[in-house]
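Q: For a teaching session next week I want to show students how multiple molecules come together into a single three-dimensional assembly. I've collected the sequence lines for a complex. Could you give me the predicted structure tokens for the whole thing so I can convert them for display?
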Amino acid sequence: MNEFDFIKSLRDQSRAQRHSSRILTGIGDDAAILSQFPGSDLLITTDLLIEEIDFHRSATPPQLLGHKALAVSLSDIAAMGGRPLWSMVSLGLPNDLWQSGFKDKFFAGYFAHANQFGVTLIGGDLSESRAGVVIDSIVLGQVTSGSAVRRSGAQPGDHIFVTGTLGAAAAGLKLIEIGARLGSSVLNSLPGHVTRSGTSANENLVDQPESRDSNSNSEPDHDSSETKSIETLLLRQLRPSPRVGWGMVIGAEHLATAMIDISDGLSSDLDHLCKESNVGALIRSDNIPTDSDVTFLCGRRALDPLSLALHGGEDFELLFTSRAEAVARLPKRVDGIAISHIGEITDQPGKIQVIEKNHIWDLRPEGFEHFKKQ
Amino acid sequence: MNEFDFIKSLRDQSRAQRHSSRILTGIGDDAAILSQFPGSDLLITTDLLIEEIDFHRSATPPQLLGHKALAVSLSDIAAMGGRPLWSMVSLGLPNDLWQSGFKDKFFAGYFAHANQFGVTLIGGDLSESRAGVVIDSIVLGQVTSGSAVRRSGAQPGDHIFVTGTLGAAAAGLKLIEIGARLGSSVLNSLPGHVTRSGTSANENLVDQPESRDSNSNSEPDHDSSETKSIETLLLRQLRPSPRVGWGMVIGAEHLATAMIDISDGLSSDLDHLCKESNVGALIRSDNIPTDSDVTFLCGRRALDPLSLALHGGEDFELLFTSRAEAVARLPKRVDGIAISHIGEITDQPGKIQVIEKNHIWDLRPEGFEHFKKQ
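A: Of course. Below is the structure for the complete assembly, covering every listed component.
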């Protein structure tokens, strides 16, 4: 049984034993929906981040870990069309990190991000952890009654949109895995203390252990562009921007029939949305918004930006479906972020196809999955 | 800076940046309180449980781990005087446990306990974990507007009460640490699958690696009593009973001025309550409800039951203070659990004293604390 089937079995058990009529949506969407007071529904979501599985501590300054822990849950509230209001965080730390400045930097990053969206930390828990950093991030939000956007409302003929660009976070992860690290100019700009013990001053924006070998000094312009691209991609992985503004606009103006955030990857998250809605999808590869930095770096490494855009996770963009009559009401940009119309919902449940040039092929969900069969 | 000082600094930061007037209580109590609809406040709490720090997996059947993960958070809602309604759980599992029956047994125990209190699981998260089991337990509840019982309302002259008995969970932990384990008759009665691979059938209620050496076969009655006592204490540690009924009665009938659950230990939790209320306390050692099984086993081992009752954690009893005029309205028992009147609140902030025979001594908070200086 894979992760998603197991969650489905928990949902069935939970539904069979539902004790409260105020649960509008329980397990199985980006957040749970509880009816609250007349006119308002409550949203709540939780995300578990475990060292070496969900993040690499050596590549992640504590401030950005605090930022990201909150961001992943803000993204879930955005994916319901809600406004985030309150948060909690449970933090397990090895004793040596407790004694260091780690926790202060973590919360400096956390609070800076919370303030950006008017979110207040209202609780949490602390525990020692023998084996690495463990974070559980909880965000509560609200939405006008009945306005929450579930995964399950897409209908054949709906247009499929995605905010921003895809593939950059996955490219950033690949760079981290081959040793790329944020440079000192970024580290020095983080909230709270910035000096990391053991890190010498470094005038480069990023450390690029790979690019120094593969590029000669005779290409200074390329090197500089590459450095900038690497930095951008590392930050897309380490400092994601949840699309809270887009989520609130879509929820408040009833612009979408279904929505999910792209955390596992477009192929997997579109699959989740289609399965919950009992529909299929046809998307056009040319319309998938790949990232220019990804394209630039992939071009130099013979990698495929489309593959990263389809299967790479953690972009935390929003994927949503809109009825034809709502499309004209969609804003061009929110918070500077544009959207792309990538395809249409079909009446073939579970079937997701890609039109690439003159060729149509089936898209399998190949995004991130915990406990994937090796 | 210790754990509690750090939480205080987070509370200060959170208060300075409070964005919402609906937060009635944020960081620093058993649960956060949010105003909800007219007549009702929402409670939310989270508890992080990490393997080898907060539980010993080898001594804890998965069903009881599921039970306890929920129980610790139910206890927080009870400590606010609230009714638990909904829950979420984030679970990090090593890959080998994912592939085993562990998760099904965990949720069998979790759901059985949730049903006991009419609580519905509405969400959560799953992640792989490289280093042991990690659980974050979240419970939401509600209380009539303004009826939540904070830690901060105790006043000089209030009477101090505690539900049930103290010290048994700590004694159970000590037994686990010297190798005692639940026997097959208990294991066979757990919800869900009961056969643990690698465990041979065992007709004893408990394995008692220590007692077998220390007791001769010429004391069959004592052995049988000891076995029963050990089993009881192991279950007080592994299968705590949150005082949900007491919490709801106290909240609904406005019987307490302040309340906290005893998770760290009476000395520490009374200290938390007194500090939040800016008062002191005088308690009588004779009135502290020690557990008869603890007394029995301690007597055979020259241990001090009073010390376990004062400093042992995880009893998940409720500690509350009541004005003199409310005392007559306190029920004798709720769900079969009695209360003990252990002392009075004084006007000496932070000073907690114990009357033991003709002697008065200062009680230091010596209960559980993460990141205690070694």
